[in-house]
């Protein structure tokens, strides 16, 4: 099994949330909560859109429409992220690991008499929004590694084609799941994102 690679580089990420959460985080009174859903495609961690402030805001707006109790004033907060030991799904070293561990993953579940999780499509455009299998395989793979991972990074082709016959999707993005909170070096509020962005 390959060893983790230290990605000695920084990226800027954006997290969609409620304005009250953004204020509390910026003032140091609170921290962004890690997501532990069994459908989170990169596994557990705090999720950020890499260099994607508009996509982060779109997510917050969408969540607000779905449940205004969770997000009543959608916004996006920026973060300076050190990738550290990164399980990077844009690097064939790590996609090869997932390929290698899949059959042991299946055998492990069968030995425990557990069902194999499925990814589920929840949109007419075919986007798989519930990534239960992806998450489970990633977590299984990282459990076999000798080194802990700080971040997981991957590209997600999401949304409808931008024109008929296109392979380019409207909401495609790179996401980062930060597993080690110390990799977030600081937060900031984007000065100008899109018209209507809430501000202090």
In a few lines, what is going on in this structure?
The chain is of the alpha+beta class.
Give a written overview of the molecule.
- With 200 residues, this protein is of the alpha+beta class.
- The chain has one domain.
- It is 28% helix and 28% strand.
- It contains four helices and eight strands.
- The protein has helices at 19-26, 53-66, 92-111, 132-144, and strands at 6-18, 46-50, 74-88, 119-121, 128-131, 151-156, 173-178, 184-188.
- The strands form two sheets. Strands 1-2-7-6-3 form a five-stranded mixed β-barrel. A two-stranded antiparallel sheet has the order 4-5.
- A hairpin with a 6-residue loop joins strand 4 (119-121) and strand 5 (128-131).
- The longest helix has 20 residues, at 92-111.
- It is globular.
- Residues 194-200 have low confidence and may be disordered.
Provide key terms for this protein:
200 residues, alpha+beta, two-stranded antiparallel sheet, disordered C terminus
What's the total count of β strands?
Answer: 8
What's the order of the H and E elements? EHEHEHEEHEEE
Shape: globular
The protein's oligomeric status is single chain
Give the SSE layout.
Blueprint: E1 6-18, H1 19-26, E2 46-50, H2 53-66, E3 74-88, H3 92-111, E4 119-121, E5 128-131, H4 132-144, E6 151-156, E7 173-178, E8 184-188
Helix pairs in contact: 3-4
């Amino acid at each position: 099994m390959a060893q983790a690679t230290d990605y000695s580089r920084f990226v800027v990420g954006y997290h969609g949330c409620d304005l009250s959460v953004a204020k509390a985080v910026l003032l140091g009174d609170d921290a962004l909560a890690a997501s532990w859903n069994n459908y989170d495609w990169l596994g557990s961690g705090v999720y950020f859109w890499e260099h994607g402030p508009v996509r982060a805001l779109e997510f917050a707006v969408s969540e607000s429409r779905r449940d205004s109790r969770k997000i009543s004033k959608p916004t996006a907060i920026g973060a300076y992220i050190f990738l550290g030991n990164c399980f990077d799904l844009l690097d064939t070293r790590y996609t090869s690991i997932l390929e290698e561990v899949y059959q042991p993953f299946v055998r492990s579940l069968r030995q425990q008499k557990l069902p194999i999780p499925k990814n589920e499509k929840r949109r007419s455009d075919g986007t798989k929004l519930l990534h239960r299998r992806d998450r489970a395989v990633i977590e299984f793979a990282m459990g076999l590694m000798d080194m802990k991972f700080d971040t997981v990074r991957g590209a997600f082709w999401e949304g409808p084609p931008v024109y008929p016959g296109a392979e380019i999707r409207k909401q495609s993005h790179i996401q980062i799941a930060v597993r080690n909170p110390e990799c977030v070096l600081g937060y900031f509020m984007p000065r100008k994102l899109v018209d209507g962005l809430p501000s202090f």
